[in-house]
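Write out structure tokens for ADP-ribosylation factor.
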Amino acid sequence: MQLVKQPFSTNCTLEKYYRLSLPLVGFNVEKVQYKNVIFTVWDVGGQEKLRPLWRHYFNNTDGLIYVVDSLDRERIGRAKAEFQAIINDPFMLNSAILVFANKQDMKGAMTPMEVCEGLGLFDLKNRKWHIQGTCALRGDGLYEGLDWLSGTLKEMRAAGYSSVGTSSF
């Protein structure tokens, strides 16, 4: 899971984003520039013992990039529960949501539509969201997803959306 916060300034390449897509211990914080939008990316990982700490990073979050292992059909229910808990936190209610349905190159992977259904994306009301099939190792779909996110964040900022909410913790 990556939480996208902006604005900040630095000059990074998308190559760093690929590295953020790999499994990690703990969390990483990096700045990534893409099409004149500068993201501060907090990759907080998926380890269960770290999940209670996620909510401490939600304040002022403009967008969420949620990466799903499309091969892991057995845990899509768990992914949905975690996803729903994140997006329903009061600090996340105004955040744009980008879901990367990763490992689309693998035989037996859920399609982006199946991941949509598995996460309950079609049930979201008054939320800006997008799902993008990806293969992080080859970079397939990453640019398309970031195109959507950067454009959506610019539109939201121009419309006066605020990522500030009140937390339930």
